[in-house]
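Lecture 7 notes: from sequence to structure.

We start with a single chain of 197 residues. Read the sequence below before looking at the structure.
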Amino acid sequence: MAFPTYTIADTADGTLSTMLLGQQVEADPAIVTTFDGVTQRGTSFTLLFATTPAAPEQAHCDALVAAHTSLPAVQDSLVAQIKSHRDGPRLSTDLHAEYPAGSGNLFGCSAASQDNWSKLATLDSQGAVAYPYTVTTYDERGSYALADTADRQAATLAVAVVVETERAAAEAYIISVLAATDVAAAKAAASPYLSLS
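Now the structure, written as tokens:
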């Protein structure tokens, strides 16, 4: 049974997250009528109940709708997009660590590349790396012969600096998204990072 039909303009910020509003209705102890969900058609939406809620529950539903903002859901989505962009295109494709500095040797910064450097460090700590040890560049077109453990540590550090710098940059955008007070501001805060290539 539908009660009643609202429009997105009835919400606090003119946005709707049907999932979030549904969770809010379900979690509200003042609403005891069995809740079946939220349906949306265009800019209109309806709360569905097993039976028509009593007047006090209806008033409470009106208040939930009036206070509803999809900001948390939008922020969560933008944070996930920023992390995906950071770990995907940014670290996997766009960014590389140059080692030695000025050499033109560019090494990958993807999760797999970071894992390979970590494994090499583990093997080195166990005495299982014979130097010179040759590592290939991200595109497999070049290589560099690591002279010793100190050289390997410096190469690993070069990769780590690029990765941590990118993580810090992404985190600054995430903080801005989470500090936004409305959906438009959250989207504007994420946009510069998500457009990086």
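The two ends are 49 Å apart (CA to CA). Keep this in mind for problem set 3.
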